Amino acid sequence: MTRQNYTFTSESVSEGHPDKVCDRISDAVLDAFLAEEPEARVAAETFATTNRVVIGGEVGLSDQEKLHDYMDRIDEIARACIKDIGYEQDKFHHETVEITNLLHEQSAHIAQGVDAAADKDEGAGDQGIMFGYATTETEALMPAPIQYSHAILRRLAEVRKSGQEPTLGPDAKSQLSVVYEGGKPVGVSSIVLSTQHLDEAMTSADVRAVVEPYIRETLPEGWITDATAWHVNPTGKFVIGGPDGDAGLTGRKIIVDTYGGAAPHGGGAFSGKDPTKVDRSAAYAARYLAKNVVAAGMAERCTIQLSYAIGVSEPLSIYADTHGTGEVAPADIEKAVRSVMSLTPRGIREKLQLNKPIYQRTAAYGHFGRTPTEDGGFSWERTDLVEDLKKAI
């Protein structure tokens, strides 16, 4: 039987965290290429440290001349990201940081397994397993610990960028330990928040005085009690942040990007990868399916796993688990999800409209639990498969 009373913890990191700076740059490069050509191939990785950003990986456009033109834009793309995040430190400033571009053309050996002939679907860009998850414990059908950890940092970023809280810096981490009773989240036993601050004279108590009102307004009423433990900047001053304080890499925050550890992760990172890479697109599809299963009332919790082989278009397996909360047998869900959506790489891209420059916005505060936008952003968060799933059962 599933445990009903327990405490579960998840963390989030802000857009100014060193790894998230790298995710942002990688996804900005991807968006630039997709804006030029929807079928562009991109696998961009970024490394950042004191006064330096290095971007490498593979890119591909059908027009080689345009490919070279876009290579020349990488410097300005990276600087724009760093500026928007808010870094103007002496040793990490958007105007003075050294940018090294090592991107090169995609390997023909990889492309040959992925490119489709005119009469058949393309194969997956790599082998792998991908997971999607949904739960009724929040309105976004996301686990509460990660959803609210993200929400706290998003709120602090808003007031920092608006000028309302000018002492806050871009780099921050949050962590919530959420108490569950009867399987439902009811409160937080501890709150951990470490945030960069620009005033060197500020103490941990000073920082708490700034951030506490925003944390309280973000969490559900009644979740914070006198018994809730607070740890705000527990090590003291946090003035030097971002890549100057700690090196960053694309793809090192995959649990932050997904479900905060409340559900499995296949191991592949998302940022910097075009949607032919099933690491990204199939993980989005699995979330889409799991969310629609839960939205349809078939289960209170649902995990969907998809698996692929490089060069093979159809998934090798589809697995569903409703964790003992299902109104429908998992085997029936597996059949239903296959019938309502093509799960080939091209089928996923077309259904979710993934060949658009919509990825830079995913680089911080989670890829899931977000609000779908009119331009196609976060399309995998829609619940427009509910009726189709019901008919298929």
Main sheet strand line-up: 1-8-9-10
Count of discrete alpha- or pi-helical segments spanning 4 or more residues: 11
The low-pLDDT segments are none
From the N-terminal CA to the C-terminal CA, the straight-line distance is 26 Å
Q: Decide which structural class fits the backbone.
A: alpha+beta
Largest sheet features:
4 strands, mixed
Portion in beta strands: 15-25%
Global Rg: 21 Å
Can you count the beta strands? 13
Q: State the share of residues found in helices, binned by percent.
A: 25-40%
Tell me, rounded to a whole number, the average pLDDT.
94
What letter string, H or E per element, gives the SSE order? EHEEHHEEEHEHEEHEEHHEEHHH
- Overall form: flat
Task: Explain this structure.
- The protein is of the alpha+beta class.
- The chain contains 11 helices and 13 strands.
- The protein has helices at 18-36, 64-71, 74-85, 108-114, 144-162, 204-218, 254-257, 278-295, 330-340, 345-352, 386-392; strands at residues 6-13, 41-49, 52-60, 88-89, 92-93, 98-105, 128-135, 168-181, 184-197, 229-232, 248-249, 301-308, 317-321.
- The protein has a 4-stranded mixed beta sheet. Strands 6-3-2-11 form a 4-stranded mixed beta sheet.
- Helix 1 (18-36) crosses helix 3, helix 5 crosses helix 6 and helix 9 (330-340) crosses helix 11 (386-392).
- The longest helix has 19 residues, at 18-36.
- It is flat, with a radius of gyration of 21 Å.
- The mean pLDDT is 94.
